[in-house]
Amino acid sequence: MDGTRMKKEEDGEKTKTDEEVVQLRREIGLLPAVSFIIGTVVGSGIFIAPKGVLVNSGSVGLSLLVWALCGVLSLCGALCYAELGTSFTKSGGHYTYLLETLGPLPAFLRLWVEFLFIRPAVASYVSLAFGRYVVEPFFAPCPAPMPLIKLVSLLGVTFVVAVNCWSVTMAARTQVTLTFIKMFALVLIIIPGVIALAKGKTENFQNGFEVDSLTLDMLPLAFYNGLYAYGGWFYLNFVTEEVINPNRTIPLAISFSMVTVTIVYVLVNVAYYTMMTPAELLLSEAVAVTFANRALQGLSSVIPILVALSCLGALNGGFFGSPRMLFVGAREGHWPPIFSMIHVRRKTPLPAVLLLYPLVVLMLTTGEIYQLINFVSFARWFFIALATMGMLIHRYRFPLHPRPFKVPLVIAVTFTVVCFFIVGLSLYSDPWNTGKSCVLTLTGVPVYYMTVYRFRLPRRWRRIFNYCSKQLQILLEVAQQEVQTY
């Protein structure tokens, strides 16, 4: 009797210990994984980028071709990342793969540009789109005041940060809900477009492949705008350690999500062109709202709300995924250790999530966001190309390394070459933004050699730094992970 009671007490103690242990838990199944990818990819891009694709491609037919090719290219890249995600079981996405295949300097530079300008710029852009779609219906047809748009954008960012600090489960459920809402919004756009097309409304597609206005230097910018709208297929790789059965879930979720998004995006653009001439689309500040006013008079007031929620979903996915890269970078010694800590009760990477918040707020309140797509895209695609090149090098050097999912060689090589080609051509197309992006990336080199490669900070600075870290750890109630999850 006593022995049985003692065994139950020991089992109870063990269960309690397992629940209290500080670690990131595997809580993302197939549905949350699919919702995470689709919900992050489908944000403001499909409602903003059609204008950029059309103006740089020069015709309706070529713009639709660009959208389809961007989807195929993104699917190829996603399949490469499915191999990387099942070959290397750590979270961290780009950073981890560059670290494992090409070494610490490229990995640190990826981490550096992600938090210096890529993530704040993308989050600011998406949150401003959220604010614009929430505020503008109340002021139509007059322009909405920019301070109010920025205030609403700030509230959206604050909500997303709070959710991701509070609970991984809550962030995942929020993502699933918002993904269903945004897919409903896109279906709402597609159906009237397809119906009108079936009735013979095809005048905007006639002479669709006029190439008189197409120039070689503009084409990469068309692809950048299209690829921006598809951006986000790599975010599931940021949270590999939190995915249930990643060897099965990651390839399945990536393949299904990207095929779905590609089909939906092409159909949405067909619907746009069914109801709007190319000139009208270029003049529109909010393509989805203009479309709704034409095709969905009864529901035109609902579309801005659905688009705003779509942007919120993309923002949530970004804040869920990107801090995991910082978390892993800090764990590897490439960032201050405080950012590799987890809240002792919430089991969320609280410091890493909170670091992004002031950077996004700063860019929101001071920066001009709408010129940043090309600026951000160069660094993002350059490092993606490096990661897939690293995958090919790793295959050659370590042929016996376990790879539960292996992408065909021709897909990996084609994707890598196309990425480098687009990045190289952008130096010619937009040397100013590309040059700034290069310079900002290279500023990480001296930082790496001064702070990571050789820890040359004066001893007094280190003492102050360690004291501040300790006080922050106490204030935020965070601790290092107690269980290895990779």
From TrEMBL:
Q: Does the keyword Transmembrane apply?
A: yes
Query: Which GO molecular function terms does the record list?
Result: L-amino acid transmembrane transporter activity
Its membrane topology is listed as: Multi-pass membrane protein
Sorted keywords for this record are: Membrane, Transmembrane, Transmembrane helix
Q: Where is it found, in Gene Ontology cellular component terms? A: membrane
* Subcellular locations according to the entry: Membrane
Can you tell me where the transmembrane regions are? Answer: 28-48, 60-82, 116-135, 147-168, 180-198, 218-238, 250-275, 295-315, 348-366, 372-393, 405-428, 434-453
Output this protein's name: Cystine/glutamate transporter
